[in-house]
Amino acid sequence: MADDNNNSEVNHGNITPLLIQDEMKNCYLDYAMSVIVGRALPDVRDGFKPVHRRVLYAMHMLNNYHNRPYLKSARIVGDVIGKYHPHGDSAVYGALVRLAQDFSMRYPIIDGQGNFGSIDGDNAAAMRYTEARMQKLTNDMLGDIDKETVDWQDNYDGSLQEPTVLPTKIPNLLINGSAGIAVGMATNIPPHNLTEVMNGLLAIIDNSAVTVHDLIKIIPGPDFPTAGAIHGTAGIQQAYHTGKGVIQVRAKADIEVKKNDREQIVITELPYQVNKAKLIEKIAELVTEKAIEGISDIRDESSREGIRVVIDIKKGEQGAVILNRLYKQTQMQVSFGIIFLSIYNGQPKVMDLKEQLLCFIEHRREIVIRRTTYELKKAKERAHILEGLKIAVENIDAIVELIKKAEGPAQAKDQLMHKFTLSAIQAQAVLDMRLQRLTGLERDKIIADYEAVMKEIARLEGILGSEDQIRGIIRAEFVEIRENYGDARRTEIIAQADEIQMEDLIKNEEVIVTITQKGYLKRMATDTYRAQKRGGKGVKGADLEDDFYTSIFTADTHDNLMIFTDKGTVFQIKVYHIPEGQRTSKGRNIVNIINVPADEKVKEIITVPKDAEGSFLVFATKHGIVKKSELSEYKNMRQNGLKAIKVVDGDEVLAVRITDGKKDVLLASSAGKSIRFHEDDCRAQGRVSQGVKGMSLDENESVIGMEIIDETSEILTVTSRGYGKRSAAEEYRKQSRGGKGILAMKLTEKTGDIMAILPVTDKDDLMIITDKGQVIRTKISGISLLGRNTQGVRLINVKPDEKVVAVEKIAESDDDGSDGEATETPVQ
């Protein structure tokens, strides 16, 4: 019964049942439209959001013009929030402050006196301390507002009226831009140069068939108050044609050379809306974290004359290279996303460049027509009165007599209207006429005024009846605005967005690259280690403590390197990205250069030849698996690498080589065996495949190296105890893939196990590194050409607890080296 009674009350009382989802939908739509139209987006006609429009109108009502004294900002803000904008004073003051900032507005609208903030992100002083008034050009944004040129609406409490749009002669939306986030949409309109925008408007007035492509020749792109440079025109073209696009804006920086030959980077212009203080802080942070090296000091030398941030470069470093890194890693280069979204006919709309200019021209057309209509109405009212006064002066004696005999003003007015056929307004004007108007000169002036007003009426009617005249008035106004406020472009537009090419800045030279077991990588000049005779002790390399070298090779600074991990992931970098080091320096860990997975370690680094088209990659694993794939399979390299080969559990990538597909593969095992077979025995497979068996291994035996050889090759074999020999390729007969191979070297406890094989010529130098950091460079020609089944000769004298960990040849050295003594005593 209780439920029935409740239902009865709901159905028959004053409570209306509503679905909550419908109510939420309606309320949210109301809120969204309020934000879109009433707060976040500018009107396409005057380029203002409601808060900015209300600030300027309040200043207009306070007569706070450019030629009047400044008023306290608090006074202006108080009028705005008290009469027109029912929001917080901080929001209103923030809007007022931005309109006065010359680093935010391309053409400031408010003339501020006091602290109005800085490009370093400093806040403006409290509004009780600052003063403001309108700029001169703001007069042309509010001119004719009292001539019924715009529509009006009630303020928030209905006590006052406020304009729905300003009758501006200046295309504020484009010259100052706008940014705002509404509900489900956002706008980001960059500022432009006033002279260029006015020229674009004039071009459309002169020829309505002008295209966006034609307009881009007149308005080449945004013009930011902080200058800078726009790199690339593709984003501008897209934005101007579609209403959306992305441009790259760079700081302006020059490289200066000091007396001590050190370079300085001097920043004088910043991208739009970049905080200078935070930019300097970010650069300092990158230097501290060693993400950018080569910077010794940063100073902010900015003053009233402009921005000047000085970055000192360390001796020997190239400023152009560091500048390029700063562009990439800091806000010295930013992406500016253009969205030409504004309110058009009460609704948000994305427009191209021509549509926006046409909207402004149409706005000006409406203003001119409404202003002319207002002036015509006033002129006709004036003419109507002058007609009455003209009748009065022509019949002055009779009218004076009539007024003298009348009992009162009302009777006099009625008799004037009846006897002289005057309207009530005319009769009242005659009664209000001063006696001095009855003099001869004044009578002539009334007649002259009447004739002048009639001419003005004819002129105004002619304007309203002629589109050509209306267009001519608009054109003349645009020319006047351009002449009064136009200035030169600040932001440079660079057609090509090409980055500084580091290859053009870095010397093309051969270097030695080393990597340690713990992943420390560095490059050094090839003359870092002078040649010695074989059998010497070598020289001290880096102090690696519990680390040791695992690879050493030569490459050109402009070469591409392919870096393979033990689990089969491949990365690619340029040699010049490897930090340069000294003979005794450790280098930088490779994880700071490429994104090596935590459970993988670098196993092989190879140099990609410049003429590698049509080449293959051949892989060998520790368990004797080989795989051949086309090099083109790896051309689309990602930042996180690619999977180069499928590696089964327990196995790992041992070696990778680039080949032309016409040579032989030579595998060597830890047991001193080797197998040679032609590449054709391995068909080319896809990138993510496992491969086929290359060599059968006994228990506890593993592959220690792979090389690509032909009949002209000489094979150098090096053991862990520093012994080695070179043998002719013919010593290694060809076999079928998958066999156990033949003996490659006679191994003893004194020689140790084979740790490397590589093809050499007698013109090469040999670089050998031990796990204690000792490095020796010796000539291949000093190593005897011996048979396959021999122990070889001593290449480096290692200590009992020391072993060879890396071997690399340096091709065609001209160094005749003379250091070190050794005897060539083959061990049979």
UniProtKB/TrEMBL annotation:
GO biological process: DNA topological change; DNA-templated DNA replication
Alphabetized UniProt keyword annotations: ATP-binding, Cytoplasm, DNA-binding, Isomerase, Nucleotide-binding, Topoisomerase
Record GO terms (molecular function): ATP binding; DNA binding; DNA negative supercoiling activity
Active site: Y129 (o-(5'-phospho-dna)-tyrosine intermediate)
Main localisation: cytoplasm
Keyword ATP-binding part of the UniProt annotation: yes
UniProt motif (GyrA-box) ranges: 532-538
Compartments, record wording: Cytoplasm
Any Pfam family the entry gives: DNA_gyraseA_C
Catalytic reaction list: ATP-dependent breakage, passage and rejoining of double-stranded DNA
EC number: 5.6.2.2
Residue span, Topo IIA-type catalytic domain: 41-505
Stored SUPFAM superfamilies: GyrA/ParC C-terminal domain-like, Type II DNA topoisomerase
The keyword DNA-binding appears for this protein: yes
InterPro entries attached to this UniProt entry: GyrA, GyrA/parC_rep, Gyrase/topoIV_suA_C, Topo_IIA-like_dom_sf, Topo_IIA_A/C_ab, Topo_IIA_A_a_sf, Topo_IIA_dom_A, Type_II_DNA_Topoisomerases
Cellular component terms (Gene Ontology): chromosome; cytoplasm; DNA topoisomerase type II (double strand cut, ATP-hydrolyzing) complex
Family stated for the protein in its record: Belongs to the type II topoisomerase GyrA/ParC subunit family.
Subunit structure: Heterotetramer composed of ParC and ParE.
Note: Few gyrases are as efficient as E.coli at forming negative supercoils. Not all organisms have 2 type II topoisomerases; in organisms with a single type II topoisomerase this enzyme also has to decatenate newly replicated chromosomes.
Function field: A type II topoisomerase that negatively supercoils closed circular double-stranded (ds) DNA in an ATP-dependent manner to modulate DNA topology and maintain chromosomes in an underwound state. Negative supercoiling favors strand separation, and DNA replication, transcription, recombination and repair, all of which involve strand separation. Also able to catalyze the interconversion of other topological isomers of dsDNA rings, including catenanes and knotted rings. Type II topoisomerases break and join 2 DNA strands simultaneously in an ATP-dependent manner.
Protein name: DNA gyrase subunit A
Protein species of origin: Peredibacter starrii
